[in-house]
UniProtKB/TrEMBL annotation:
This is ABC-2 type transport system permease protein. The chain crosses the membrane at residues 50-70, 82-103, 124-146, 166-190, 197-219, 261-283. Keywords: Membrane, Transmembrane, Transmembrane helix. Pfam families: ABC2_membrane_2 (PF12679). It comes from Thermomonospora cellulosilytica.
């Protein structure tokens, strides 16, 4: 019979400095943000983010070039309208990258490994939401900044007004980013396979937009303009556009929006409910994944 032996190979308890909760959240945030842009992953994972970032920049660069050649400031795309004009590109970017952040750990069942260490479920969710929001913020804010800088270089009149519009547009971009990231992560978290996740996120945006446009068309034909405006709150891009138009004084870029300041306040409240509800759903989803 063979005999066994126990060998002391020198395992020791960790005696270094404990870095704490903030370090854990920062590490999770950076890891997920890098994943959203394909950093630290194979080269093919970087292709789609780079492609969409380039597409987002093209209209801004073309608008600046038109201002330079024509010498007319009106050729510059309105800052606050930029995300709405390019919503298909933003939606597809979100659809391709949200499953990377929301479903990989669930698909490979490694969520319990995260929670076996001192990582709170809420911290896990907030880090992912912050990373996806930052990725979308970069995607949208960089072209808007290019528009503003291009306008300054071409000496557009009334630089003070342009600065104010640019800063208000950045507020809108932040709101776009957090609302879209919340919706995209929730949808992707319930579709463990990436292909299904991509299709599901795109379907949510396309179907909601098609439904709202149909109802708004019928309401407008019946001269029920207020109903058409309120229905705009049912699609993410129109929802945020309503906040920009009614509370930030931006030009209307999407479909009909609710009337008056009250419409803007309701739209802002709906945005807050969407984000808070998404955090709650993601929390329960990842807690359930940890129990597998």
């Amino acid at each position: 019979m063979t005999t066994g032996a126990i060998h002391d190979i020198g395992y020791r308890h960790y005696q270094g400095r404990r870095l704490g909760r903030s370090y854990l959240m920062r590490s999770l945030y950076v890891h997920n943000l890098r994943g959203a842009w394909g950093l630290g992953r194979p080269a093919r994972a970087k292709v789609m983010p780079a492609l969409f970032a380039s597409i987002m920049l093209l209209p801004a660069a073309g608008s600046v070039a038109a201002v330079a050649l024509a010498g007319e400031a009106d050729a510059l795309i309105p800052y606050s309208a930029y995300p709405t004009y390019l919503q298909p590109v933003i939606a597809i970017f979100l659809a391709t990258q949200a499953p990377v952040l929301a479903s990989r750990e669930l698909r490979f069942r490694v969520v319990p490994l995260y929670f076996s260490r001192p990582v709170r479920a809420l911290d896990f969710v907030l880090a992912k939401l912050a990373a996806m929001t930052t990725a979308l913020l970069l995607l949208m804010a960089v072209p808007v900044t290019v528009l503003y800088v291009g306008g300054l270089v071409n000496r557009v009149p009334d630089a003070g007004t342009h600065l104010r519009e640019f800063l208000l547009a950045l507020v809108g971009v932040v709101l776009f980013a957090v609302v879209l990231a919340s919706i995209g992560l929730v949808v992707a978290a319930f579709t463990p396979r990436r292909g299904f996740g991509v299709a599901a996120v795109i379907a949510v945006f396309m179907l909601s937009l098609a439904f709202v446009q149909i109802v708004q068309g019928i309401a407008t034909a019946q001269t029920r303009f207020e109903l058409a405006g309120w229905m705009g709150l049912l699609t993410p891009f129109n929802l945020v556009d309503a906040v920009q138009v009614r509370l930030l004084g931006a030009e209307q870029a999407g479909g009909a929006v609710p009337p008056g300041v009250l419409g803007g306040l309701v739209a802002l409240l709906v945005c807050g409910c969407v984000v808070a509800g998404s955090i709650a759903v993601l929390y329960r989803r990842f807690r359930k994944g940890a129990d597998l």
